[in-house]
Amino acid sequence: MPDLPGFHHLASAILVCLGFHAVLSKSHLVKKLIGLGVLQTGVFLFFISAAARDGATAPIIEEGATYAAPLPHVLILTAIVVGVSVTAVGLALAVRIQAEYGTCEIDDIHSAEER
Amino acid sequence: MIAKHLPVLLVIGPLLTSLVVMLLPRRPMVSWTMTVAVTTSVLVGSLALLRRVLREGTQLYELGGWTPPMGIGYRVDELNALFLVLVSGVAAVVTWQGKWSLLPTLDLEKVHLFYSVYLLCLTGLLGIVITGDAFNVYVLLEVSSLSTYALVAMGPHRRARLAGFNYLILGSLGATFVLLGLGYLHVMTGTLDMVEMSQRLAPLADSTAVRAGIAFLVVGFLLKGAVFPLHAWLPDAYCEAPTGVAAMLSGTATKVGLYALARFLYCVLGIELSFSALPIDELLLLASAAAMILGSWMALRQTDLKRLLAYSSVAQVGYITLGLGLVDQAGLVGSLAHALHHGVVKAGLFLTVAALAFRLGSTELSSLRGLSRRMPVTSGLLLVGLLGLVGMPLTTGFLSKLYLARSLFATDRILFLVPMALGSLLAAAYAWRVIRPVFFDRVEDGPDREEASAGLLVPAAVLLSTSLVFGLWPTPFLTAVQAAADRLLAGF
Predict the structure, then answer these.
(1) Is the Cβ of B172 closer than 8 Å to some Cβ of chain A?
(2) Are A43 and B159 an interchain contact pair (Cβ–Cβ within 8 Å)?
(3) Exposure of B319 by Cβ count < 10 A (0-12 exposed, 13-18 middle, 19+ buried)?
(4) Model pTM score
């Protein structure tokens, strides 16, 4: 059991909250995607800091050394790839929306829809 | 050889075919034929696997020969075998109809890309259902969701892009919550294998970290399953997507989200932790009551058939979660039976809509007037599907509601009969709003009889008749569902 509280945990919680707030409150589609990126980064940091140990090294077997848990790093490698893909698909859609509506502001899109 | 590796072939087959379809010559018929071939084989494989599970019990498969918890294991029991059959069955039938409904609407240069993404989506859905590894669930959830966003955005109107984008934002929030929840559970248990995780979680019921993880996980799956009030993405996504894609999504995507929810609540977290230590059952019951009433009410107010069906999905998900929140055998049988019933019937209805939209060029309710004279077979299919949604006797929907009602009496929650009855009455009302123009509005000198082609109608008829066949002859259906419900109650 790692000792949970630490400043990096606090940082990850702040990133998650900031990202979540941006996703919900921003009206520009690209800003929503940036918020999503910040939120995901917060989650990545949570995993990575959970793997850290005091005085730990890379997990290469040596006598008497403590290792950082390797598994969370590997998981987050996958999650980062997923995050990049989500951003790519989201930006591609934003480009199409900009081309078809002439704007990426959600309010302008809705008013264009009602007309 | 094939028999031994069957579980992994079900996932790898569509994955590799997706790549091949993308790289092969850009001939629409080549892409379609390959997709049909692989979805049909996956259906046959899933049926073989279900038969094996019902005879021999749970099947274990180790990926690459690495034994869990070191490697990733596939665990196929009665529950996921049934959902594999649902997902692959709906996908196979929807693909068949695609040649007549989807291909004419797509840009010929992009057909191969469409089917490539479609197969990726199927890979993800099958993977979530079959895997026994918690992190695998997250990765495959994202594989299926990412491809779904692209599929939704391929709809004909520019609104489809917006619907796809909104679904991407909400879907990614849900998936990130799942990831965060799994993070907490992994930190506390040190494992990702579902069975091992369930054993290590049992003594940790009082841990705040575990509870926080469960909260994130459950919210993530509720979003994916479009459980009220987290259903906001669903109506636009179903309505703006190409109708064939809507059929695929309504039959599989939300059901897989709910499968994952049930698997985690009952098996990984365990009944003790989910429902005694935490009040998830009350939460599910309240959300279900709201979904059944408000979803049906919203469906009643729509003027477009596709949108009406989309809101009816929000309501029908309520019946599935109601059974999950009742935590007894009859309730779970009702819930699982309703998931299978609704998956098949709603996919069949969307395929019927694809057939009539092809002739009428519109899905507005007002354009359906006098349809029964013009397209009698299509109208008949529409009627069967709508009666299935209401839960009329002789359809599987009646069986599931019967079990749900029985469980409400058994668990002393008779009060919840009120939203259930109200939801069914409203369902009858919105069904009537479709049936009246189709069968009872006379149109003078309307167009002559011009039925949709057999290629459009047969797939819809196959799905809708499944509901009738098992409604009339319920024993094999209920036996399998009961085995799955017992498996859920037993943990693993």
Answers:
(1) yes
(2) no
(3) buried
(4) 0.93
